[in-house]
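[agent] plan:
  1. take the single chain provided in the ticket
  2. run structure prediction with default settings
  3. attach structure tokens to the ticket
  4. add a short note for the reviewer (M.T.)
[agent] executing step 1
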Amino acid sequence: MLRRFLPETMAVAYEVHGTIPSVRADATALPQILLNLAANARDAMRDGSGELRLALSTVAAEDITGVPALAAARRRERPGGPQHFAVLSVTDTGCGMSSDVMARIFEPFFTTKHQGEGTGLGMPMVYGLMDQMGGYVTVESEVGSGTTVRLYFPALCGLRTASIEPVMGATGPEGASERILLVEDDANIRTLTARVLRRAGYHVTEAANGEEAEERLRTQAAGLERPYALVVSDMVMPHGDGLYVLEATRRLAAPARLVFVSGYAGDGLSGAPGGDIATIGSRFALTPVQEGGAPPIIPKPWTTSEFLSRIRAILDAPPNVPLDAAATHDATRAG
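[agent] step 2 finished; step 3 output follows
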């Protein structure tokens, strides 16, 4: 798989040290992880040459250093924790990374690549997928000396039964448990955003576009589900954009809270003259909650701490999507 993905001028080497135990791993997630790491290695070996080396080994949990989450778990003496890990080391001979870059490597949307060359989601996805499997990931790198990523897979005996370290160290306010409807058409961004919110304690329902969001809101309006405290929506999507989501929220869930998340300063939304956020907020009476009076919007890229802070602030503020006066008037006349 990796050989077909890399230039022929790059060498690929494989090593197996000792006996490797059976491990807990997702057969779908593992190729995603390896392709992400291979893509990073390919980009780091800029001249098209160099070597990518994959090595498998086994290590006892008590001998592992440099993995804070595992150390914390052992200090808490959690019963049933894994005693051994299979370690897959992925090493390249590329340009390496500075300490500043290393400090942000698992941060969503952070990338050192040029615009259009990377999303900044690769390493956060690797982290999240490993965590879902009960494993860990570490990165070692120096400028000019290449990079080594180590993936720790728990051996099947004594599986870890609960997550220990929050994604990117992010935690939400104690007691945060509100329901959030997340609307995002990019599956990778949706998965990552949902994971960050769930780790902060929120209950998240996902929708891939405005039409799916409308169905979720309709179910809530029928009294079949607990109401959403907040709708978090992308702005540019097929099958119902951010404006569609706003209309559906106002019609089916108001009074409610809504925040847009977008990487575009001037998203062109169907039916929004000028296509800017101020026009949308004014046209649909979306009450400002941001300091300075701007309609609520979280720009991409965001950091985890910034994102969760904004979400909490909007949840703590009064609803910013008022009742649809026209719909209320029609309902009153019908009654």
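[agent] step 4 note for reviewer: The domain at 2-154 is CATH 3.30.565.10 (Heat Shock Protein 90).
[agent] ticket updated
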